[in-house]
Design goal:
There is one protein chain. By secondary structure, the chain is α/β, with parallel strands linked by helices. It folds into two domains: 194 residues, Alpha-Beta Barrel (TIM Barrel), CATH 3.20.20.10; 130 residues, Lyase, Ornithine Decarboxylase, Chain A, domain 1 (Beta Barrel). It has eleven helices and 21 strands. The strands form four sheets. It has an eight-stranded parallel sheet. Its EC number is 5.1.1.1. Keywords: Isomerase, Pyridoxal phosphate.
């Protein structure tokens, strides 16, 4: 996709905030646990390679991604740390993963049997995924899990590097289902003759609120980016520093007379003479149409989004005439007020990291160190 470098709309990523979030979480770990940075989905919208490098500087010893292509991108960028692909990779790419020293998730014996026919000299690092209640991927019973673990122990074509599960409700107050998953996981682990290098269950939410379950590695994801995985339900044990802000400028400003309507469908009509500003950003950039009625910040004041958000532009009601080029904050701070990704998500009826993942490549990512562009 074309990147819009000749318009003012942009994402600003604070590298220091990313590093601080990682350092603060590492300081809470025991001396036997590692932090792998989850940088899938283009670093939750923040940039996969850049985020990986920032987290490495802060002490991350490995990375987690969702698909093999993301892992290959990190290798192409010169990152040599352990990389785990959390999703299931087509078995035909097992040799490619082995050649690039990339660890793959395995969820059934059939995958191992087929991979055995493909692999040659270099063994493939694998993590066995266990489905304790998430319902996505992994072994569901102890017998099949033990068979696979024993198979890996005896095979020269695999390096049994890890075993893991994923919790479905770690970010909720009610821990009933969480505790059930812990019980199931412990049962699976009891089947092992020997534990592999990594035994891990903790995503950001688990590590923040159930640190006793951490194992010897955590998969730190949304917390890297300064977002609370529970939204506003649970308080984080330390101050998560938001890493991303979304900025633009007014591209047009006009006085609209009472009775005139704004945007597609004429869903907003001025009740009196009003100043209306136009911002060059829209749902093609990931600022979704459902955010009509929400607000942005201009000159330290909340300004309501009026009329339907267009593909490339949106309109806001402003308190007075502002010149073209006036700064607009769609996420971030202006004066004493702020808009967080959680604020946007709650209005949109979703979660904060769906918002950041949804920002498209048309928006430039600008990386700063405490406000200074790198």
């Amino acid at each position: 996709m074309v990147v819009g470098i000749h318009r003012p709309s942009k994402l600003v990523i604070n590298a220091e905030a990313i590093r601080n979030n990682v350092k603060n979480e590492i300081s809470r770990l025991d001396g036997h646990s590692e932090l792998f940075a989850v940088v899938k989905a283009n670093g939750y919208g923040h940039g996969i390679v850049e985020t990986a490098k920032f987290t490495k500087q802060a002490g991350a010893t490995g990375f987690c991604v969702a698909i093999l292509d993301e892992a290959l991108a990190l290798r192409d960028a010169g990152l040599t740390e352990t990389i785990l692909v959390l999703g299931i990779t087509d078995v035909k790419y097992a040799k490619l993963a082995a050649e690039n020293d990339i660890s793959l998730t395995v969820g059934d014996q059939a995958w191992l049997d087929e991979a055995t026919q493909i692999l040659d000299q270099k063994p493939l690092k694998v993590h066995l995924g266990i489905d304790t209640g998430m319902g996505r991927i992994g072994f569901q019973d102890g017998a099949s899990f033990k068979k696979a673990a024993d198979y890996l122990e005896q095979s020269q074509q695999f390096n049994f590097e890890g075993v893991f599960t994923h919790f479905a409700t770690a970010d909720e107050k009610d821990t009933t289902y969480f505790n059930l998953q812990v019980e199931r996981f412990n049962h699976f682990i009891s089947q092992l003759t020997r534990r592999p290098r990594y035994v891990h269950v903790s995503n950001t939410a688990t590590s923040l609120w159930h640190a006793a379950c951490n194992g010897n590695m955590i998969r730190f994801g949304v917390g890297i980016y300064g977002m609370n995985p529970s939204g506003k339900t649970l308080e984080s044990p330390f101050d998560l520093q938001p890493a991303m802000s979304l900025e633009s400028e007014l591209s047009f400003s006009k006085l609209v007379q009472k009775g005139r309507s704004i945007s597609y469908g004429a869903t907003y009509t001025a009740k009196e003479d009003e100043w209306i500003g136009t911002i060059p950003i829209g749902y093609a950039d990931g600022y979704e149409r459902r955010l009509q009625g929400f607000h942005v910040l201009i000159d330290g004041q909340f300004c309501e989004i009026v009329g339907r958000i267009c593909m490339d532009q949106m309109m806001v009601r402003i308190p007075k005439s502002y010149p073209v080029g006036t700064k607009v904050i769609l996420a971030g701070k202006s004066g004493e007020k702020s808009i967080t990704m959680t604020d946007i998500a709650e209005y949109a009826g979703t979660i904060n990291y769906e918002i950041t993942c949804g920002f498209t490549q048309r928006l430039p990512r600008i990386y700063t160190e405490n406000g200074v562009v790198n």
